[in-house]
């Protein structure tokens, strides 16, 4: 786990401690962000160059941030070409937090390598990169300083969340399994946690970053056997996170080895957008010396495969 925090934390460089941000602070935050990688090259090009044969790739919307001096971003999804009403349906979402690299690249790996394997048994809808501006700037938020993964709610102010929900409702209204791909990184403590506290005018709640993979189940649909099957499969790929001395992972009580629970719907999480029988949020730790980027991507793909196997009773 990440080292113990310093006794005093340096105030975030934007805003006044204890006061929520207004428009000037949000503008100042946006001015600090820089493009660090290419959504077009690293996401769109692979999708267009090597679509799985039994799949179709389509644009489900476009983010338009020209009013902020930025550009537009096409949002892409991949679905089974031979969609059949009698088959179970699997939803995979990645890149809700754009900076969580393996959430995007793990989804692309699975599409490239494993999609065809399941094409005759399940319907599949994949949204591999829900927050492309966040992917390019390695950011948790969108350009309006909103966290999409707290805004999967009706009338969401996050265009990323709104468009993703509309896509799922239109193309996969009945879902049996939903796997939402995420990471927990050291930057959660170094940047994004302090930024959130500054934005909201609240104290920063520091938690150790767990050194390993874990999953988050929904308190309303805990399905412990499903979550444990995922953990057992991923343990062959990358280490599983251990609880802290209080028996928690990032402040949440451990329910079983590598498993914690959140209330998906109440928190506005992507994992709560369907009534799927089986839903999980993965959390990979890419900053660990015990893993590699390739292993992180593999952990995400392994989770999807094991989730489908579990759905099919294997």
TrEMBL record:
Protein's recorded name: M14 family metallocarboxypeptidase
Any one GO molecular function term: metal ion binding
Keywords from the UniProt entry: Hydrolase, Metal-binding, Zinc
Origin superkingdom: Bacteria
A Pfam match: AstE_AspA_cat
Hydrolase found in the keyword field: yes
Cofactors named for this entry: Zn(2+)
Succinylglutamate desuccinylase/Aspartoacylase catalytic domain location: 88-187
